[in-house]
Amino acid sequence: MDGRLLAPGEAALRADDHAIVVGDGVFETTKVVGGVPFALSRHLRRLVRSASGLGLAEPSEGLIRTAIDDVLTADPAAGLLRITWSSGPGPLGSGRGGGPGTLVVSTSGGNVWPTAEQVRLVPWARNEHGALTGLKTTSYAENAMALATAQRAGCTEALFRNTAGMLCEGTGTNLFLVVDGRLVTPPLSSGCLAGVTRGLVLELAGRKPLVTSVGEVEVRDVDPDELLRADEAFLTSATRNVSAISAVTGEVEATFDPAPGPMTVRVAAAFDDLEAHIPDP
After folding, report:
1. What is the mean pLDDT of residues 179-202?
2. 140, burial (CB in 10 Å: exposed 0-12, middle 13-18, buried 19+)
3. What pTM, to 2 d.p., does this model score?
4. Residue 108, exposed/middle/buried by CB under 10 A (0-12, 13-18, 19+)?
5. Which terminus of the chain is more exposed, N or C, with fewer CB under 10 A?
6. What residue ranges define each of the domains in the chain, with the CATH number in brackets?
7. What gap in Å lies between CA 120 and CA 89, rounded to an integer?
């Protein structure tokens, strides 16, 4: 934290830091593969975009990279790396303080996901016109509530529609469907986050020979009813890579069998190969 290496459980943030008081911060999380954070440059670029969109000072990339080296040296078994940048200490309200921001870089073990996930389409809508749309901020209470609702129903992720009723994203994932042989995903205008893994999957899907095997790729509005006629569905995220969906419950009920399906398997294999050979694509 801010240049100091702290032991697990050691006090880190001030109680008046705005990351705690009002969730006034941005963050990035990525997998650590062989001691190296995957696609770090892309995550750092998005961190800067999110900070700028939130009106925060730009974090120092040099300080972040030094902090990453320090924590990964101290935790060589790390599976996940998180970078958090807040507006720093401030009053006990929405107004920001005038001091420097707070940087926290932390590690944990990796996540273990099932071979195929059940997800729940929750009744709340993402506001694609909101002030935080497209920014990865620490204001995550809406996501925490939706995910808790999904988990109570036996699911591992929650999906949101937007205010127009179109499919948007998960609490920490992007969504892909296979409809009529085409790979389909909602556009950024739907209100979804520009996921790093989403972007890499789209780039991979646009390359030969993968483009031939997955068919045409479409980035467009996706009606929830398309879940009912999709052949396959999968999630993407920095901690999951490509993760098959076996069933959707909640506002729409759909089942995918087999899960993962053949196109999901091809996309996942291509992504895993990229991850294994190019640590910072």
Report:
1. 97
2. middle
3. 0.96
4. middle
5. C
6. 18-108 (3.30.470.10), 116-277 (3.20.10.10)
7. 37
